[in-house]
Specification:
Number of helices: 5
Structural class: alpha+beta
Order of helices and strands: HHHHHEEEE
Mean pLDDT: 75
Shape: elongated
Largest sheet: 4 strands, antiparallel
Number of strands: 4
Radius of gyration: 35 Å
Length: 208
């Protein structure tokens, strides 16, 4: 009998497993003699079932306790759940950095690139250099102003000197003298940042 069936029955085994059929006319005495043995067997089977159920229940409790301990250990390592100060710091640094490098004026593309060299590293720096090289001349020639802000920054993981974040950006663009014709676009980025000295630098950016 499975544990679920035993629990559903309230711990009582099948009556048919314990009860003999009524003895015939010539078998009454034998039936009476066998009755104590039948009762003893029924008690033994009941004890075995209860013991088995107890082992399964205790084993299940141990399993769930172990799983909780693993989750607790993982949560303890993720300082995004336990260190509000560090979480706020990395979210602010990354959000501000993205706003700076994705904002530009027709005559200020060099400033955006200088900011990128400060706040980007590794793969993110290479990504940005490739992207900005494609649009730099167009921004200047067409007199386009870009303004970007991080509307929401969430820290998914923070473990020591590395963090992974989900950032939602809004970017508005317009040509000189045509703010009425401005267009706004939204972006969702997964960002990996690394703490270098006292500064969080972005090392990877992925669009979602």
């Amino acid at each position: 009998m499975t544990l679920t069936r035993l629990l559903r029955r309230g711990g009582t085994p099948d009556p048919g497993a314990e009860t003999d059929s009524a003895p015939g006319a010539g078998e009454k005495e034998r039936g009476d003699a066998d009755a104590p043995a039948g009762k003893a067997g029924g008690r033994l089977r009941r004890a075995v079932l209860v013991a088995t159920a107890l082992v399964l229940v205790l084993g299940g409790c141990a399993f769930f306790y172990g799983a909780h301990q693993l989750r607790s250990a993982a949560s303890a390592r993720n300082h995004a759940l336990t260190d509000p100060g560090a979480t706020t710091r990395v979210a602010g640094d990354v959000g501000n950095a993205l706003a700076r490098i994705f904002s530009s004026t027709p005559d200020g593309t060099a400033a955006a690139e200088r900011s990128a060299r400060i706040v980007l590293d590794g793969r993110a720096a290479r990504q940005y250099a490739t992207l900005f090289a494609r649009v730099r001349d167009d921004l200047t020639e067409q007199r386009v102003t870009l303004s970007t802000r991080a509307v929401r920054t969430g820290v998914a993981e923070l473990d020591g000197d590395e963090a992974r974040l989900l950032v939602f950006l809004d970017q508005t663009s317009h040509k000189d003298g045509d703010k009425a014709g401005a267009t706004t676009a939204a972006a969702q980025l997964t960002v990996t940042a690394r703490l270098e000295g006292d500064r969080w630098r972005i090392v990877d950016i992925k669009a979602r």
